[in-house]
Amino acid sequence: MNKFTIRIYLPLLAIMMGLSMISCQQEFDEYYARPSNLAGPVYQVLSDSARFQGNFDHYLALVERAGYKETLSSAGYWTVFAPDDSAYEAYFLEKGISGVQDIDDETAFKLVAYSLVFDAYDLNTLAFYQTGPGNDTLSSSFRRKTAYYTGVTRRNVYGEEMEVIGANRNGIGTFSINDNNNKHVPYFLNHYLRQKDITAQDIEAFYNRTFSGAQVDRANIAISNVRAENGVIHVLDRVIEPLQNIEEYLASKPEYSLFKSIVEMDYRNRANNVAVNYDSESYPQLTERYGALQQLMGPVHVKSYSGQYAFAPNNENFLRANVNDAQSDSWTLFAPENAALQQFLDDILLENYGAVSNVPDEIMFDFVNMHMFQSAVWPSKLRENSNALGEPARFDLESNITDKKVLSNGLFYGTNRVQEGNFFFSVYGKPYLNPAYSIMRTLLGPYRFTISSPGQNFGLIMMSNQQIVDAGFEYNPGTPTEWTFNGSGNLAFDRISRMLELSLIQIDNPSELADLNTPKIFETFGGEYIRIENNQIYASGNADEGVTLNFDVAQSHLANNGYVLYVNGLLKYTEKTLAQSIFDTPQFSRFSDYLRGSSLYNSGTLQIEGVGSGAFFTVLAPSNDAIEQAVLDGKLPADPFTGNVEERERIATFLKYHFIPRNTIVPDGKKIVNPAGEEFNTLFVTLEGEAQKVVIDNSANGNNPPFTMTVRDNQGNVANVILPQSNVLASRAVIHLLDRVLEY
């Protein structure tokens, strides 16, 4: 190649290479260029797009005022609930202002931040309850966390101006420093209603408008699922404002001021308030964080509520079982109005305390908790949810509910009556609410849910503090030996517990205790029996002492699940063994002779073989005449103390066949429901190991009073229980008199 050729070729090569590089760059740019059909960021879509330009001027002006223009113009992932201009013009009219210029910066920030939900959701995914990757529960969500949170507010607390921030967890000392306690926005979609089996009327009950099928708080979604580069836009036909939480709503409504004062125990001073705590020392980071943003007068105090409450009314989160649990559920509070609550205080709660400040704190916690529900209680499901004490809401939707609100952390109902809580309106209520019976209230602690249940009926014999002390007991809580009896701690608690169970009568219907004159026998909670007649009552120990206790009929109280009865002493159980009780009862004298002379009886321990001291028994003792007849018929040896081995064996077998273990059976029509009677094992077991049975029946009068009782033996013989001389009370046992000997 000559020099001329080279001079021409090299420039051409450079030009060709340059053109090639330009072409490659164009291809690169085209490949990676922003697609022409990709929507811009939220701010651009609402401001510049042909579809929306000019329809969101008010909202966008507030976005700029609130400092969110850059956020909504750049990367991110948002769900934006954007009210259009017509929605804002209606809002201006509602507020009596002329336009955006009349909205202050703080309000602008609230309106915009509350319209922004973290992450982007269309109408389908909006209803997902996010429980973890791949585990979302479809159509189970009705709330989402917004960008808005209250932060620090200045309040007057106990007469002192204080910087306060709300709790973000339940319980004192549980504040999470990295959680801003963001408010949630509620929304309601048709598929959520179907999933939860609630109706449009449930939603309409809280809002003065027809449910459209897609609603965000008070606004309908006019246009949905508008895609933007950094999120999804849903256009609203009304402006939504940050909702108050339950605490804020209570504080804003004077008609609930009495209930609020009880929730926060305003009657206690700050040092003695166990319901509410203001803590400025545990979280110094809060003062540093907000000090740079706000002109603080002092340290930031976290206001938290006792963990004894079902929830903290200022906690915007839910149970926090997982980070998103507030999406699918919320708290519910039923708050009685002042007049209704005052009536309850006057009639029930303060009957024996005089002032709220005298009521034990645990009772006040129970009172508040019976109005707190750890779930969203929709109007049509009023009876299907349980409060913190396991009770349904006992209000009539039409006549008792005076106020309904969906709030940022739950549902709220104002009521014209208090919740008819089990602890306060059952038989348990009398010892529970009377300081003169505070020891009994302590003893009833393990039983309180049982005996306060409206599904079960009880008679409650009251045990006053003075009666317990007079009986020889001392109760010193917090000491190594809390209970003593006659100065000794040995089995003192077991003794008083057994006496308590004697005072809990199991009944089918409160009417059973309306008449205290007619002779009756009742099984108590511990399985032992007591007897009532002629306005008197006694247990086995009282019978031993020859003492019957008298009812104070004027004090008798009919509760919603039974009767509360007052007597002039305590019910006592016998200290005797079962053998001693048999020996000491005259009508069993011949039966006693055979028992005393048998191989079953140990005169050293006073015990009967096979009869443990803590076991329940029914003893069927033939009368003296019946035993004489059995002797004449050759069915029993004539000598109870015979030394003949075979005769002693016959006597032992005879005795065993008249003892029924593990059961106490009386003629009351309760334990025997089979018209043909029920089979019961006796102590007599054959050499082959087969327990011999008897059939007991009290259906002669159709299981109705006056009750009868018969016993049929293996030979088909029927013995009658001689009622006037039966129902003899012993230690965990009942002894009946029969008119014939049972044959095995």
From TrEMBL:
Pfam families: Fasciclin. Residues 1-25 form the signal peptide. Residues 43-240, 575-742 form the FAS1 domain. Keywords: Signal. It comes from the Bacteria. InterPro entries: Adhesion/Biosynth-related, FAS1_dom_sf, FAS1_domain. This is Fasciclin domain-containing protein. The lineage of its organism: Bacteria, Pseudomonadati, Bacteroidota, Cytophagia, Cytophagales.
